[in-house]
Amino acid sequence: MTMKHGLLPEDRSQDHGAVHEAATVASLLDVLGDATRLAILRHLHGGEHRVVELTEHLGLAQSTVSQHLAILRSAGLISSHSHGRANVSRIENPEAIEQVLSATESLAAVISADAASRGKESL
What we know:
GO terms for molecular function: DNA binding; DNA-binding transcription factor activity. By secondary structure, this protein is α+β, with helices and mostly antiparallel strands. It has a domain of 81 residues: Winged helix-like DNA-binding domain superfamily/Winged helix DNA-binding domain (Arc Repressor Mutant, subunit A, Orthogonal Bundle), CATH 1.10.10. 65% of the residues lie in helices and 16% in strands. The chain is globular, with a radius of gyration of 20 Å.
């Protein structure tokens, strides 16, 4: 048993769990930290779409969109299925994605407002 700051016993299993959880969140933020993937999630939030529809909407090559879809799928944020010859993607948990998109937009607005007020203060 180790002592944290020399005062209280430290539970290493809790530390390990916290580090694991932080790593999971960091990995998810890495996936969400790409503008193209956020745009894909926003578009899929309106319903499932074929890859060709996403490429047209985003103005990107099919291979680029497919790479981003694979990353989103690997993170468990979306799922895909075949419909004839088309590959169709949809958000796996729409409520959670709505919360994420809302939180990122709110954070961006707060940061933007804060930066604007700091700019006014320096005048």
